[in-house]
Amino acid sequence: MSKCRFNDVKISGIVTCVPTEEKSIDDELELFGGNVKQLERLKKTIGLSKRRVVDENTTAADLCEQAARHLLAAGAVEREQIDTLICVTQTSDYSQPCNAAVLQGRLGLSKECASFDVGLGCSGYVYGLWLAHSLVASGASEHVLLLAGDTISRLVNAKDRAVAPLFGDGGSATLIERGAGVGTAYFSLQTDGAGYDKLIVPAGGARQPRSAETAVVAEDEAGNFRSLENIYMDGAEIFNFSITEEPKSVQGLLEYAGSDADAVDYFVFHQANRYILGNIAKRLKLDPAKVPMQTVEHYGNQSSASIPSAICGELANGVCGRRVEENAAFRFWSGALLGQCTA
């Protein structure tokens, strides 16, 4: 297990961005055979309600770019100061070049800025923070701009009720830099690739390129429709993995840090669904008030953008941040400029 700690590294700002279009599970009753009771049960237990999805012309890079521009406009850092750009996504604009290289140019960052992608989803934001902290702590970077976002809705078949109501889209920008005396950050990273096929888009990569055959939509035994080019999720396996492994990981990290749950203000988990979040909180015996779990009800499972979205949407307002409403293409902004803005 990879555990490490970093001193004198701080998160100076977080901004998240979601697209304008909102979908509601109430408008998708046909997915559940018109069963109103089943729909209401899902809304109550799992927290499925609304989600934001991109249009056909908007990508994860676009969402992350808008978040980054908002962060830069707030004066958190000057463009020329950013020496590393990390882009975490599983829905990049192109197979090549990487999103980070494209966004380095679109944001007008220095040519001396190191830029690279990280191809991770749900765990991506934590891995991105770990990378950024590593670079700053080692002296390799001074100001790291971490962009994390996905448009998983693009990979979902609208007739697949196992995933269609779950996934929303979002982008985020986080600034990580040196900060003397800010305390210690602790990380614990793990991997279990044995279950790779439990959450997968089978076709579209080098292993199985797209073809006329992979585009064919078929119905499974549960009545869900998808092709090999759509995302597949084994919900039961994902749930069991989450509630079994995540509590152990959290407890192990607390022990490594020499702390306990009472000393922690908030536990911000990946916003998969409310049922998973509630079970994790219960197994760790956490105060529910310390576990944000409303973000998924408003924006869906945003993959790599879900944790920063929860920080901005549920913790920033009234604490250390602000909301900004826009009437442009990206209507809702949620910004937390830590230590630099008024509530």
Q: Topology of this structure?
A:
Layout: E1 2-7, E2 9-18, E3 22-24, H1 36-45, E4 50-52, H2 60-73, E5 84-88, H3 99-106, E6 114-118, H4 124-138, E7 143-151, E8 169-178, E9 184-189, E10 199-200, E11 218-219, E12 225-226, E13 232-233, H5 235-256, H6 274-283, H7 295-299, H8 306-316, E14 322-325, E15 332-336
Parallel strand pairs: 5-6, 5-7
Antiparallel strand pairs: 1-9, 2-8, 2-15, 3-4, 7-8, 10-13, 11-12, 14-15
Helix pairs in contact: 5-6
Query: Tell me about the biggest sheet?
Result: 7 strands, mixed
Provide the low-confidence segments as ranges. Answer: 318-343
* N/C terminus separation: 39 Å
Total number of β-strand segments?
A: 15
Can you give the mean pLDDT? 89
CATH architecture: 3-Layer(aba) Sandwich
Helix content: 25-40%
**Helical run tally:** 8
SS-derived structural category? alpha+beta
H/E series: EEEHEHEHEHEEEEEEEHHHHEE
Radius of gyration: 20 Å
| Overall structural domain count | 1
> How large a portion of the residues is in β-strands, by DSSP E?
15-25%
Spatial order of strands in the largest sheet = 6-5-7-8-2-15-14
Which CATH class?
Alpha Beta
CATH-defined fold name: Peroxisomal Thiolase, Chain A, domain 1
Pfam families: ACP_syn_III, ACP_syn_III_C
Domain Beta-ketoacyl-[acyl-carrier-protein] synthase III N-terminal: 116-193
Keywords: Acyltransferase, Transferase
Protein name: 3-oxoacyl-[acyl-carrier-protein] synthase III C-terminal domain-containing protein
